[in-house]
Amino acid sequence: MIDVGRLNSLEVIETRGNGLLLDAGQARTLLLPIEQVSRDYQSGERIDVFVYLTASGQPAATTSQPLAEVGEVALLEIVDVTEVGAFAHWGLPRDLFIAFAEQQYPLRKGMHVLVWVYLDNQGRIAGSTRIDHWITDSATGLEVGQQVSLVIADQTELGLKAVVNHNSWGLLYGNELFRKLKKGQRVIGYIKRIRGDNKIDLSLEKPGFSKDRIEAVGNQIIQQLEANNGQMAMTDKSPPETIYATFGVSKKVFKQALGALYKQRRITLNAEGVSLEKLQTQDSGPSSQ
Length: 289
What we know:
This protein has helices spanning 131-134, 211-226, 240-247, 251-263, and strands spanning 7-16, 19-25, 28-33, 46-53, 59-62, 73-81, 85-89, 96-99, 112-119, 125-128, 147-155, 159-164, 168-173, 186-194, 200-203, 231-232, 267-270, 273-276. It is mainly β.
């Protein structure tokens, strides 16, 4: 049975001149247009297709991927507003309809807004900007340290709200962000804390100390020093964005790596930056008497 509004893995029945005939279950078939068939398929092979509804309400298959499936959130552009509602571009030829009743505030052409994709009571794919109606503050099914997918939402006084796994609200604290994030951007994050009120604090890094990771960043720092005559202007006082652009880690992890190297006496820290410590060797030759 096909799942409208989602990616489906369907079996090829046969290849025809105008496309692939796919088994949609319950004695139904779908035709994937020939221009979307990238290679030869044999009967019995499977192909991943997105199933949507045509203007007449009939299911159709495409290998094009929308910006969001049913049950997901994405930042979409409003391309038209009519007397019946708004329409958003979501990566398919037929734009996504957003009824007036599902608009958190009046939409205008050209706006970019977060949209939840769902099936309405008639089984049609539709959108809603009333995100709070679909996304909850519950941490049910989540645990500290768990890796999750995030969709960046609005900025608050404390930081950035984010949709966790297209299901729950979470918060990335501004003083812990080490790179710039844009509304609608999809990133990997981690559950940092689940508060007593069941709300979620998030982090872009996995919570806890990782010796292997600190060592890996330390090796990157040493390589950077060796490539620059043993000198590096970047320190633990450098902007988080600069550190992330160079080493791909937060300022906290960078400081931990610097501290570990300093304790190992592999580097020295001074006002100008970081220097590679010269190894002291003892003279192994015979001593004069």
